[in-house]
Amino acid sequence: MTALIALHQATVQLGVGARSLTRLNPSLVCALSEVSMSVNAGERVALVGANGSGKSTLLRLLHGLLQPTQGRLSQARGLRQAMLFQRPHMLRMQVKNYVALGLWLQGSAWAQAHIQALATLERVGLIDLANRKARTLSGGQQQRVAMARAWALEPQLLLLDEPTASLDPHAKGEVESLMQAFAGQRSENTLIFSSHNLGQVKRLASRVLYLEKGRVLVDLPVNQFFDSNVLQAQYPAAHFFVKGEVL
Question: Does pTM surpass 0.90?
């Protein structure tokens, strides 16, 4: 099976001058180190690990917001993807126009983008917010609107960086429902998301990658990742993380 997206021995260094690097510089921060991974269509991959382990950097690399210092990224031809951040940036406009803007920037005529935006808001249960100012919404509403904007682009791959980290339990449930709905809409729809919420990982993921200090130390199906016997015997660092002994 051909991977939807893959990394091949990818290293990312961050710091002053990092973008112009052609080789590794030991004075810079190594945010990811020699990461190789591939994701197939239809997978739901959770990235877990302590703060600073490299989860956000990995998502940004997969989305093309960062370039590898060494190694490479490969993607399926014509891959459509979108990314959702922990705190979406809301523009000074109505929700329907905020969603339509993404479509317009991709080349749709404004009238058609507006029609598609309203259809997406209806599909995800947010049509009642269509005429509200995006910046006046609650945090949970803003995240759901950002999800709708990404969904309207009809991506095959959706990347989410801690999408529910700052939300209350009710809002978390609503965002999780949208994630599940996206994954279930088409068999090829694919999720890659980072989360500190292990309950959320159990509910949504089919596969878990555990990162530590910029390296992927564990890559397991979700049921094996949460099998304490497997982790304790083979991946003690991840075992301590799941037990809550690593922050």
Answer: yes
